[in-house]
């Protein structure tokens, strides 16, 4: 039977080989040998398993702590503040995260809905113990990185098994929100994904409400309840975090603001400084010196 101890050396080896982003779409690896400062990022619908160490992810005033053997599930695109709490040279923080496309969840739900628990109350994030039955398919997915010839055939099967194990485990009721097409969670998730994919465009809340199939007041209320942000605040966070990612790639400050949707350079600089504590030029130079990319997933 696969254990956490079996996953740790696999993550170490594959991280040394590929870094954070692996050839398997949506599979990211994390390693740190010291606790971190604040990490601002945007989570996609995804699952994260901590194999060693501990982390906290926060939306608004809600904090979700998870350590070895525990996981975090994000049910929609969401700006999150996080911090690695436990890590050392002797025992580094090790984790993996896997994107969970709603279509994959919906497909399993449509086949096996009667054998699964009811969806949880509307929530964007959830943390808790992970069913140890997940360790084996995760091990096989990591090992598949060494088998590119087998990947096209075996990867979809292993991913399907992982989603199935998650649906049947402690985080299953929360995961069902992703794949239940007409749930309030799925409706808000469609809107949040749209904002993320079109963050540089002008935002009309009425259009988002129509996309979610809600009235404007109902959409505004549900959106803020789950994200702790209004749609306009959500878009601003997405824009600024995309701007920081571009600055890390050494793009010019003057062009970055326009690229993420700002028409006024001074407004861009003010908003950026308010979120990150320094103007974009100075902050960009600092993060390039540290060479620590902002992760998009837990």
Report the portion of residues in β strands.
15-25%
Provide the succession of SSEs.
HEEEEEEEEHEHHHHHHHHHH
**CATH architecture assignment name of the largest domain:** Sandwich
What structural category do the secondary elements indicate?
A: alpha+beta
> How many separate domains make up the residues?
2
Q: What kind of sheet is the major sheet?
A: 5 strands, antiparallel
| Number of strand elements | 9
Q: Strand order of the main beta sheet, please?
A: 1-8-3-6-9
Approximately how much helix is present in the residues? 40-55%
What is the name of the CATH topology of the largest domain? Answer: Jelly Rolls
CATH domain class name of the largest domain: Mainly Beta
CATH level-4 homologous superfamily of the largest domain? Jelly Rolls
Distance between the termini: 26 Å
Globally, the shape reads: globular
Note the total helix count.
Answer: 12
